[in-house]
Amino acid sequence: MSWEGQVQGTKMKPESIHSRILYNDDRILVYNKPNRKAVHNGPKVGKTIYQQLEEANITPVYPVHRLDRDTTGVLLFAKDHEMANYLSSLMKHHKILRSYLALTIGVPEQTKGEIGGIIGHFNRNGRWQMGMTKRITSNNRDTVSRYRVLKTYLDAMSMIELQPITGAKHQLKVHCAQLLKTPIFGDNKYAPKALMHSDLAQRLTGQSFGWNPVHLHAHRILLPEYKQTNDLVITAPLPTYFLATLMRIDPTHSIVRGQLLRKIK
After folding, report:
1. First and final CA of the chain: distance in angstroms?
2. Cα–chain center distance at 41
3. What is the pLDDT of residue 28?
4. Region label for 127, one of left (φ > 0), alpha (ψ between -120 and 50) or beta (otherwise)
């Protein structure tokens, strides 16, 4: 798999939808989700990924997992109910491995580790969002993520590989912001307000923190012993805005040259 390729604009045409297919056979489809596109119906989401696939005559497909509207990258669909149930079971038992890349403000104290705790739903100043809590309720979720720092920039920003073991809503965003204390660049929902328009992001990227897309990308997925043979690994290229940010931070960035990809294989 390659990092080459570019993310199209948010207005997708049928031919560009086909170009975003990373893998396709008789049982599954793997799609490279763009930014600001929802997987499922909801208020103010516009046309969903499923509806776009339907318009391009790529149906039926059944989403196996979710990606937030502002998260890009690998999105797995099953093509029949039997495969959907099988993959959902693998996901539930943490057999499907997923790897994300996140550009964060700040550097974690440890270069790698396992983090987690209970995530709950809160109304903060009239705004609903997720957050770490000690309360155990039927609606709260116990969560676990693994991480490792791949690269740091002037001790002010980091490229982090994240592996969610569980799958709670906004899990990686909350873990980065509240446990690692390194919010994801562009995430104006969970970042402390002090970082929103700090000179830190502007100095490194030339842009204010809150005026960027969320730099969280579902980089890779591994299906174990797919079709009773070898593991199937699918990789999605970084979106152009993510690459552009990295180039502003470091014009000789190893991820562009492919060196970082080899490190995390």
Report:
1. 10
2. 19
3. 95
4. beta
CB atoms within 10 A of CB 258: 12
Query: How many CB atoms within 10 Å of residue 256?
Result: 16
Cβ partners under 8 Å of residue 139, min gap 6: 120, 121
List, in sequence order, every residue forming a beta bridge with 166; answer none if it has no partner: none
pLDDT tens figures, 184-234: 998 888 877 655 545 665 666 666 555 679 999 999 999 998 877 889 999
Asked whether the beta carbons of 177 and 204 are under 8 A apart, the reply is no
